[in-house]
Task: inverse folding
């Protein structure tokens, strides 16, 4: 099994783009949860897709497995 590079260390030494991606991804995931049932199903689907896209970007930046890899989907 190969080892994956994980983010860590002091936050001041973290890549600013990775940190920004994480904050944006976290906010998008919170919006998905908070807005369920408050917006149209189409808008909620688009929001979920955006959050998933941010998860894929963060996985690529950090060397972590993509969400679809963890769930057994296509990469």
Result:
């Amino acid at each position: 099994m190969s080892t994956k590079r994980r983010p860590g260390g002091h936050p001041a030494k973290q890549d600013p783009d990775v940190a920004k991606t994480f904050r944006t991804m976290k906010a998008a995931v919170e919006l998905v949860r908070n807005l369920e049932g408050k917006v149209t199903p189409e808008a909620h689907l688009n929001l979920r897709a955006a959050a998933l896209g941010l998860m894929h970007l963060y996985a690529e930046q950090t060397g972590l497995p993509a969400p679809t890899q963890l769930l057994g989907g296509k990469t």
